[in-house]
Amino acid sequence: MPGVTGFNHFNAAVSDMGAALGFWRDLLGLELLGRGVVEYDYLDQIVGLTGTRIEWAELALPGGGLVELFRYLSPAGRPLGGGVNDPGKTHLCLEVEDLDGLLAKLHAAGTRSAHPAAVEIPRGDWRGFRCVYVYAPDEVVVELVERPAD
Questions:
Q1: What percentage of the chain reaches a pLDDT higher than 70?
Q2: Predicted TM-score (pTM) above 0.85
Q3: Which domain holds residue 22?
């Protein structure tokens, strides 16, 4: 029966691979699995562009899945504007431990957040969870969430 069987990866197009790896690998601590540059006809067909040359990196998410970073060397893209409420804007949510400590580390490194501190959800299915949106390079929105201690 056709249907979704699981999560594989999240992709972000980036303008500076070094800055992106500085956030995803160095600040968040994701393991770099590989990186390189590719030029494949089949990739052109998958992404719907011609003559792609892509610098890529893949980082492992604890518990399964990947964060995949693409820097399009050819054809070059242009930065997207807009806020989290604009149609088509997405975010990736990551569960973390010691959200306050991680947020302090991110702020010290110059990472912007939507709110200066984690916000505790007071009711509903997510009651007790603490969350904050942070902005990775290229304005990629990442929600950090910490489960309640119970």
A1: 100
A2: yes
A3: 9-74
